[in-house]
Queue: 2 jobs
Job 1
Amino acid sequence: MSGGVSVLDIKGMSKSYGAVKAVDDVDLHIDHGEILGLIGPNGSGKSTFFDCTTGLARPDGGKVSLEGQDISDWSLNRIAREGRMLRSFQKTVVFKKLNVEENLVIAGQMFTFGGVLSTFGIGRGTRAKVKGLREHARELISLVGLDQVAHMPAGNLSGGQQKLIQFASMLMPDPRLIMLDEPMAGINPKLIERVVETIQYANQKMGVSFLIIEHNIDVVTSLCSRTIVLDRGRKLCEGTPAQVIANDQVREAYLGG
Ligand SMILES: Nc1ncnc2c1ncn2[C@@H]1O[C@H](COP(=O)(O)OP(=O)(O)OP(=O)(O)O)[C@@H](O)[C@H]1O
Ligand SMILES: [Mg+2]
């Protein structure tokens, strides 16, 4: 239950690039425990919406509240390092020379120790901190099914496996909200299943809410309780995945008739 305060509440988000209104006066809220889908044609403003929400791009207007706190003026670094709201990029980013476990430990170290350690009840002292991070990393490596390759350099693994590393890294600081930009792009059906299950696990067992940009409609249907459709920067419609798919305007603008 949300208790009335959304995880994320955005009002009037707008961003233009020259004459292009990439995002045009969009409102969006995510309830606690919700998995919200964000879909729409190429160039409809989905990634720009993420950029503006996470401080990567400065919006022309709009208010961003995270768990009731106004973070509209926060920098990209402040939002990222705090570890409450995290995002992935369309392009996967991992430390290629480090092994899988080291990737997760480093990710954990980049965030404030407080959040991670409170999960494990570990006190001060660097060794204890790193031990806690290692234990947490191992759990998450199992969760995404990378135990067999935990000590291989990330750069030697497939693109799909690297996506799993990135995803597991994002769970390290115990975030409240994860924003995923096309998590299924370029990965095979079996791994898609694994990523879907992992998102569901993180959602149900770890209490992480999600905002997911995804072109794979089957994935959107199986994961999301609600979906927002963007078209040319504006919200075209909103509803359950089934409602949205049945909408004539969505079919015309996005799904191809
Ligand atoms: N940094 C930028 N500079 C100039 N124009 C940009 C920039 N970022 C995005 N745009 C423009 O804003 C519009 C929205 O782009 P955006 O990447 O947000 O779309 P998208 O919905 O994520 O598309 P896709 O599904 O292809 O990833 C496009 O017209 C794009 O060219
Ligand atoms: Mg995009």
Job 2
Amino acid sequence: MQHFSILKSLIRVALAHDSEPLRHQVERLAAAMTDAGDDRDAAALVQLLNSRERSTKLAPSRMKRSTIAAGERMTASVRVPVDKDSAAPLATVYMPEALDATLPLFPASVQDNVDALVREWAKADQLLEAGMQPSQSLLIYGAPGTGKTTVAMWLAQQLHLPVVVARLDGLISSFLGNTARNLGSLFDFANRYECVLVLDEFDAIAKLRDDPNEVGEIKRVVNALLQNMDAREGRGVTIGLTNHEMLLDPAIWRRFEVQLAVPLPGLEQRTVIASRLLDDGLTAEAKLIAWLCDGASGAEVQTMATKYRKRRLLRDDPNAAPIETALQVARSTSIRVESDRRRQIELDEAPLTVELATADGLFNHAELAQLFKCSTKTIQRRLSEFVGEGPNSGE
Ligand SMILES: Nc1ncnc2c1ncn2[C@@H]1O[C@H](COP(=O)(O)OP(=O)(O)OP(=O)(O)O)[C@@H](O)[C@H]1O
Ligand SMILES: [Mg+2]
């Protein structure tokens, strides 16, 4: 089936909010596909349903919090530790009811790792009985804007625990000299309560190393961090986030039981991110944005789609073709758009039609006609003039 991978992603997203009618419809679709002889894709849908069923069984209410976090219950009025000199807070606390993170769209391999971790927490009792501990420390690394903070918040949400988020860059740069003491206060606070500790901008510690004046300080800070992390073992979940995992001291790296690499979103994921923001399903326009955002992060795709939507709404000429709007957005943005895409979107209509028609089977002729606001005949003519019959007529 054409675009099955995108359909599968959509179903995966929809199944995150488990609903019986939705499951029923997906089962119907799988049955219809089997009847049509599309066994492989039908099996993929059944697998998706099964894996969702498994994660639903791991719902937060079933998790044994006591095995994941120790300490007092936190309330919304809890006093967050502050720097003694400046009185600046060392962390921000989010109560579970204030968390509303949606799991970012990941390729199956990353999703499997996330599921495996949640499963460990949900089945902590079983692990303990077998003499093992559920993983309590996780390092999430990847390029900026790939959903690291969002997945950390989502994971905390699965545990129904408050989240203590400390931005280490702030903690270090503002209070150089007091950093070790502040780290101690931060960890004492997190260890006292049932909570998830999130250490954002984790590489800030490593970056200190670049400053030759701070050799003594960096040693003190790294040691303080290692000691604090060791002392936190068994007290609660700790999640470190970094864009620069290469900078991290191997000793720090080793402290984390699980390392989760968050990749840039693929075409499939970019299409779904864009379509969510365009708010009108899986249109050719969402695909166009996904195509244009080759090499961009999820956050950049969101920005691009939002810009596109604004331009579309406010354009002077209501008959302007989507491709025109995309061109204007591409020209006006500093978002990382691969140089190839920048060159392609600037092409004249006919060669651009050819580029899009040969882009991984992404667009069929009807969609190309929508994007250029012309007839499918015109699309076919352009393609036959350039390459004979287009590879991907899909109508
Ligand atoms: N793969 C993805 N799927 C869906 N949404 C995504 C994806 N990647 C990023 N986003 C969205 O982009 C926005 C920014 O994500 P987030 O802040 O979690 O990224 P980050 O990796 O923590 O960035 P930074 O390194 O700048 O801190 C969020 O709204 C998030 O939902
Ligand atoms: Mg972040």
